[in-house]
Amino acid sequence: METLSGIAICPEAPQINHLLFADDSMLYAQASVEACNQIKDVLRIYEMACGQKVNFSKSIVTFSKNVTEALQGEIAELLNVVVVESHEIFLGLPTYVGRAKTATFQYIKERLGKKLEGWQGKCLTGAGKDILIRVVAQSLPTDLLKHGMRWQISNGAGLRVWMDLWLPNAYPFVSVPQLQGGGIYMNKVQQLFVPQDVALVKSLVLSERNLNDRRVWHLDSKGQFTVKSACKLCLGLQHAANGGGAAVISKVWKGVWQACIPGTARICIWKVLQNILPTVDRLVSKGVQIESYLCVLCGMGNESSDHLCRLCPFTKTLLESEEELKRVCYEERNHRVWEQVEAREGDVLFSLNARLTDFQFYRRSLSRIERGSCRWKPPAQGWLKVNMDGAFSSSSSSGGIGIVVRDAVGTCVGGFCQALEDVYSAKHVEALAGRAAVKFVRDKGSSPVVFETNSLTLANATKQAVIPHTSQLSRVYDDIIEGLNFIPGSMFKHAYRQANCVAHCLASFASLSRSSLVWENIPPNFILNVLSSDCNFV
Predict the structure, then answer these.
(1) Which of 15, 159, 361, 502 is most deeply buried (CB count within 10 A of its CB)?
(2) What span, in angstroms and rounded, lies between the C-alpha atoms of 159 and 478?
(3) Rounded distance, CA 446 to CA 14, Å?
(4) Gyration radius of the chain over CA positions
(5) Domain assignments of the chain as residue spans, ordered by start
(6) Is pLDDT at 183 greater than 50 in this prediction?
């Protein structure tokens, strides 16, 4: 095999011409007839020595993009193997990883989801729990799990209040109130909890069913472990150990990633802050031979990220004219290095202003898309449509929900609105509106029904997925999905706010007046005008 040239990941790395593992082996060689003959000779000697024969009908070959189809066919015929675009999996991992890394490794998430399907929320045997822990939990550091896991309260039967983490966004350090039938004895809470934790306890989102408590990863919006959330947790713990500063750093990064500038500019600023721009000083530190260390923009100082973006006279001229992006300096530097094209400071600034103005105008245009034509539409004949909405007041931790039911001709056949207390977010209110709407329809025995909400989060959460939703609101979503199973043909759909005006009016009324209403056939007077403009019903 020494006569075969293999592949190398970089110019100074050794060449690899084979990877052998049991009965799954890969050979690398130059795409030539001579290399194929050498491979056949090696395999012939192997067969003579061990008595085993290579099954070429189960073998495949792949080529790089610069190999002609004629040569590919000749080599494949010589080896008597099938040509494929790429070897998908080797030892459980993809052999080729391009730019779309999320799509490349999606199969791992899907495979894990299928293994966990049906496990979560069910009673497992001791052996089953042992397998789950070995497969999933032991792959994560114990201290990381300790800081990222929380108990999601349902019936509270097995909760160890003095030891377990269960309060959202906090550590428990006082006794638990008695939990019974999904309700909490609030007078006990007032006695045992400090004021800030009383609000946390009241905001616990409980299921209407008697379910067991479960562990969730509280650092993710869906309650599921992700590498991104674990990375943020590690950084937070590291900054806390070093005396804080995590909040300041987080504010800086939010300012970068949420800036109304092109994505390439955000990436460039991130590289500057991380000091990973491929400037001369960074290239030299990596062992790259550079002829001159001077900055190509000014020719006066050694090129570094600090000099290029702050100290260079060329950069200073731009920044003094107007506070613009540092990316343009690096871009002009690349033009001079690779294209030997120079531009004056004024020309660069004019070009940048034009590009930035066009970008921001385009962003504003997208955010102002008119949705006046998005009106409420009646359901199909024989169906009912239920619109729901929620209103939330962060200052008082209160809100209201509104539900309206209409038929195929737009006639209002029923609805209600209700005031809510101890809610912590608009998503919380929207989720409670969805659960109340399903319960309202189920109690009436109506079907089939289309449920419409202007909350995209709620609409998506009510769709069954391979991996269950385990966020703080997941018990409400579970109740909704369970209720939909008893309403044949029902479904949740997303609608824009313009198509959900009546429900929004009802929710706002309940939130402001702190009152509740229920009706059938005859709607309250304060929504008649909205109904009329919504579906021409008076």
Answers:
(1) 502
(2) 21
(3) 71
(4) 32
(5) 18-94, 259-367, 384-535
(6) no
